[in-house]
Amino acid sequence: MELERSTKAFTKKKSSHHLTKIITSILLLLLILILIQSQASPFNTPSTSASWAFFNKWKGLAFNTTDGLAFAENSNSLISKLQDSVTFFPLKDLRFAKNAMEGNTWFMSSLNDTRGANEAEYLYFPSEMSKGRLLCIKGNDMKEGTRNSYALAWPEALPDTAKLMEGLTFVSDTYYDYVNLWHGLCAMAPFVSWSINNNCPRPTRWVLFHWGELRSKMGSWLQHLMEANFGAVKIEGLEEGDRIYCFEKAVVMRHNEGSMGKEKKLQVSDLLRCKARRFCGIYPSGKGKEVNERGEPIIKLTLLMRRGSRSFKNATAVIDIFARECAKVEGCTLRVAESEDLNFCDQVRVMTHTDIVASPHGAQLTNMLFMDRNSSVMEFFPKGWLELAGIGQYAHHWMADQSGMNHQGSWWEPLGKKECPSPQQDLECFNFYKDGKVGHNETHFAEWARIVLNQVKARKMEDAIKSYIDKPLPHSTACAC
Length: 481
Hints:
- It is a single-pass type II membrane protein.
- It is found in: Golgi apparatus membrane.
- Pfam families: Glyco_transf_61.
- Keywords: Glycoprotein, Glycosyltransferase, Transferase.
- With about 475 residues, the chain is α/β, with parallel strands linked by helices.
- It folds into three domains: about 15-85, no CATH class; about 90-260, no CATH class; about 285-480, Flavodoxin domain (Rossmann fold, 3-Layer(aba) Sandwich).
- The chain is about 40% helix and about 15% strand.
- The chain contains twelve helices and 13 strands.
- The chain has helices spanning about 1-40, 50-60, 65-85, 180-195, 220-230, 260-280, 315-325, 345-350, 385-390, 395-405, 425-435, 440-465, and strands at about 90, 125, 135-140, 150-155, 160-175, 205-210, 215, 245-255, 300-305, 330-340, 355-360, 375-380, 405-410.
- Strands 1, 2, 3, 4, 5, 6, 7 and 8 form an eight-stranded mixed β-sheet that branches. It has a five-stranded parallel β-sheet with strand order 10-9-11-12-13, sandwiched between helices.
- Helix 4 links the parallel strand 5 and strand 6.
- Helix 5 crosses helix 6.
């Protein structure tokens, strides 16, 4: 009888021990599966917070045995060590402060971009690149990027003081700024491209940096353009400077649009044009096929003027020249607009109904984005730009190429004798001329306007003939995203 009781006790103990081993094995398997999931493709990964809650639920059910409690203690100890091992590095790496444009980057310098042929370079978190870890950012300094920092952390082991920012976050660092139309568009275009490639997700928030320094806003024009494409734009201020912010999903762009190919840039431009027109309630059906009562194609010429720097010295004389040449071409209409007087949708509307824009060099020319493909651009510069400005003066040539426009050339006011205080120092000399006003040459302007007007008229007549075939335009599905 005593042997029987002993045997039963032994069997019970053995069974209990066996059950504990099974439960522990299941927990280990679940933990492994969760970690594998956290490293899976960013577009198919389930919520890490949900996975962790599921794990905790099973841990709570199983840790009622002595072995289970030991396992829990070890697990918590491991998580604590992972939390303590999170290491922050400066967002701005001073080692690359002088050669950031030569293959390196000072923003999150320890990480390598995901690259695709003719696509924008980007970082995605969590992903295989980050080994399933999330991006965390600390600091909100607006004057020194080295005071702001970043780190990678496992979603199951975020630092104790971290705030998890749910949803998708777009993080940008730019060499220039988010206020100037041209610079801002160059920084935002890669996000539009990435969105097109990944079923058009919309960000929950934006985090903006310039040389690692936090920025709290975009320019009004740029914000409206992003709202037209992505919906509401929430710019995260990271108000608590010492608080750690970790992002459930994050896309980081830090090279502007440099690596994007021409076809991708055209695709982005087509989408932004279409979205901006819809945003502003502009539906130009039949545009490009307008004719007057005599059957001549209508050509809409816009002088997009500026005030202050790089405005025309004698705007009245320039307007008279273009008005005379326009009057000589059947179907030509002239509009004069001041960019400073136009809100975002006014600019979209004016440029939607423009075939030729003539304007001094400046950010307002970025509005060519809203013209139909194959529209024409004429650009004017003050003295000193041709000789001293470098390649930056061709920004709107590039803009025209990537948005499908015809840049019809530029006119530079002749420099003559250098009048700058330091004629031997090109940079100082350029700064002297940079914001000067633009003169005019009546003979040159008249001939140039006549040539461009006739070219546009011939193209529109040819398009009118082709329109009988009624083939869809190559960018007619631009708003599909």
